[in-house]
Sequence to fold (226 residues):
Amino acid sequence: VESAHAASQVKVVEAHEGGLVIDVFTSLPLHSDLPITTKNMPHCRGDRGVALPMVAELVAAPPGSVLDVTVESLSTRVWEGLVLPEADASAPAHPHRLAQTIELGVLRGVDAHALQVFPADYDDRTQTLTLHDRLRVHVRFTSGHSSRPVRGGGPSSLHRAFLNPPGHDGWRTPTPARRQVGGDWYDSSLPWVKIFVDADGLYRITAARLRFFGIDPDDVDPARLR
Fold:
């Protein structure tokens, strides 16, 4: 599977109901006579703002699952005396771990999680770059509740975006109880933002987008999100 990121290739070693195993191969354009660049290469922001490569893929999980991630390095390379370029201002910070998952939401009946892999680390003091150019990532699904697959017209074409697309049209989820409209459900004094999208998919509203609408993210109480 070609990653969406030019510097990495992702190979699914195995995938089953309990999780999946993938290998992540990463290479960097490191040449003594050429400048190091991250142009058109997704990256995160390391210490002192340097750009480090990262990989992000979609993982499908059964409803209510907790994703347990373990990583083993199968190959590592080290370079000394390297000066790395600065990361873009919008690049996420390096979490100082090899991998993590982020719950995104439900895509056509399937719980979607972002699997982020961070194969590189940089010591600005010694200008030393450590690159795990082959990582094996184990993702295990735990604590999910029992749920039957939906029988319908087959899996959605959107499910092809997953590393482990389910062979069905998602899982059945309990029907939520109807909520009474009234009380404090809608407070006209609070800021409300209506988002229109043109296609099915996963969308993230960033802090920058909230500021664009005149909302300070620091003033948002997560307990009152609707």
